[in-house]
Amino acid sequence: MSLDLFLDDKELVARIKDLKKERNAVILAHSYERPEVQDIADYVGDSLELSRLAAKTDADVIVFCSVHFMAETAKILSPQKTVLLPAAEAGCPLADMITPAQLEAEKAKYPKAAVVAYVNCSAEIKSMADICCTSANAVQVVNAMAQDEILFVPDQHLGRWVQTQTDKKIILWAGCCPTHQRMKVSDFVNLKKEHPEAVIVVHPESNEDICNLADAILSTSQMLRYCQASSATKFIIGTEMGMLHRLRTAMPEKTFLQPSKGLICPNMKMTQLEDVYESLKELKHPIEIPELIRMKALKALDGMLAAVPTK
Ligand code: 13P
Description:
Shape: globular
Low-confidence stretches: none
Radius of gyration: 19 Å
Strand content: 15-25%
Number of helices: 15
Helix content: 40-55%
Distance between the termini: 41 Å
Bound molecules: 1,3-dihydroxyacetonephosphate
Strand order of the largest sheet: 2-1-3-4
Structural class: alpha/beta
Order of helices and strands: HEHEHEHEHEHEHEHEHHEHEHEHEHH
């Protein structure tokens, strides 16, 4: 560990800002990142917004404070840029729940189905898909497909929720997000008893019984806009706790409650300010993708961005 790492947070933030200018870098952070990392970022967003920003930024370096598949998405969209993942080990268990061989076998079972891949998957899985989607646009993407049958991978809960919003036949893959799985119905019910006026907002990666309790089922940035537009002042938020920082920063006058204590994605929390600093200083850890895979994955991502051109 370098001596630089014993800097206090104020000094660290100052150095990150200097290095950012020197490198002509942009710092992107997902809504689940640590508060201090969100606060240093140029943009905090959901996976769709961050993809769009990565595709159009004129920075030379993208420091992607998130997990591996999101940084990989940025590299697919902006291959000429240096895309850095500050915490090299930050993965996604949901993305790991499907392998190329498994998808190949499933595709063979449903030759007429279009493959829609939630962006929470590897570049290789994206390269095998007809199109990608995020939680913010999954319904529009599915409806935009010419096929009536959709093989939806890898998140079963998002796929099941999409099924409630479309006439197409959705074939589900058995993946799920372990963090969202930790939420319990009883926690929502108890909190709602204590705060009957609170509006329940959950992420579509949540279980069906939890979605059934919700007033709104939204991506992380959609949650932000929904709570801003709502006349309600109290919300129960069913997603990773980093989102609470984002909501409370944007709306200090409103109250945001979490149903379950410690709803933490350990991967999203791996990135610390020190990692952001080291990343900019040493250009760590650059994302590389074999060109053939990248080109095919790009088609699926471009398809998504074209199918749903605005937020
Ligand atoms: P959003 O696209 O809503 O930010 O969600 C991404 C994610 O990984 C949720 O667990």
